[in-house]
Write a sequence for this structure.
């Protein structure tokens, strides 16, 4: 499979209402087991939607069916399947995923990328939600603050803060935000 070259960064937004049980068929057995282990229905819905959206976005970029996308989530520290999603293909784009409240977001970029979304009402009192998501995005990208360019994103619902972190060398590049409904609708 040829390497994919993005002409910028892609950010895909999904609302929790898209968390249809039919999406389970696109997940791996490991991802299904993670869902089964979650006690709260809202947590299961967010996790289902996040895993399915990662696969749908990567499948679109790689021209693969979502169920065939080789997503790897093994944590480098403990070996459990809860690490950041990586595509197990040479030259594949890097991915980042986040969810909060009624939103899930996935970002793809040719290099390090981190995305975070947070429902503002859930941020601890006295904490700046914008600073919170900027810091989280930098950590998720695996960058240090001085090496990162952090951009504010426009979540599709009010009451949320979101940020995208990219390498500083990418300054001024294109960031396209998309509604994921078309990717997730059968």
């Amino acid at each position: 499979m040829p390497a994919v070259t993005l002409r910028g960064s892609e950010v895909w937004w999904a609302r929790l209402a898209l968390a249809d049980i039919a999406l389970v068929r696109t997940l791996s057995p490991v991802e299904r087991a993670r869902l089964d282990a979650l006690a709260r229905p809202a947590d299961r819905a967010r996790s289902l939607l996040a895993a399915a959206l990662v696969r749908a976005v990567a499948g679109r970029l790689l021209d693969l069916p979502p169920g065939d996308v080789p997503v790897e989530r093994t944590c480098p520290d403990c070996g459990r399947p809860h690490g950041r999603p990586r595509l197990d293909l040479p030259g594949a784009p890097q991915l980042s995923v986040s969810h909060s409240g009624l939103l899930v977001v996935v970002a793809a970029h040719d290099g390090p990328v981190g995305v975070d979304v947070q429902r503002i009402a859930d941020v601890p009192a006295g904490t700046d939600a914008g600073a919170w998501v900027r810091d989280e995005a930098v950590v998720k990208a695996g960058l240090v603050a001085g090496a990162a360019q952090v951009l504010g994103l426009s979540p599709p619902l009010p009451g949320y803060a979101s940020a995208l972190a990219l390498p500083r060398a990418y300054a001024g590049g294109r960031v396209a935000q998309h509604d994921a409904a078309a990717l997730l609708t059968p």
